[in-house]
Task: structure prediction
Amino acid sequence: MPTTELLIIATTLAILAAGATILIKNRNTRGRTTPAPSHVQLTRDQLDTQLHTLIQQNKMIHAIKLLREQTGMGLREAKDAVDGLAAGRPISHPAYTALTGTPAQPDLATRARHLKEAGHTEQAILLVRAETGMNEEDAATFVGTL
Result:
């Protein structure tokens, strides 16, 4: 085989190897816009801010992962909590409420009572249904007793 052909083959192989290395490196770092977890315990205010930011950026998986790291929640609990937060519901899990930094969220009955007293009975019923899974009739009965 002439020397020129060997040189062309060797050059082609070197270019392919360099391209493969670049592709692998890019694949391993693509989409990483959030820094690696620092394992620093956040206050509830800091965690809220980061969760809301991630949700606004549509980075639900990152939000779930952060919530699990900070609270020790299971995957399903954290997913449900992040989905609820995205829908405007507060997180009421004990591991979350145990975090320091903000006052504890009033219980469901208190929040529903305030809505009812403000003339927002339907919103109170929707709140009870969303947080408890009650049907409409049971939630209306609950709100009616407040």
Summary: Residues 89 and 137 are 21 Å apart (CA to CA). The helical segments are 3-29, 44-56, 60-71, 75-86, 94-97, 108-117, 121-132, 136-144.
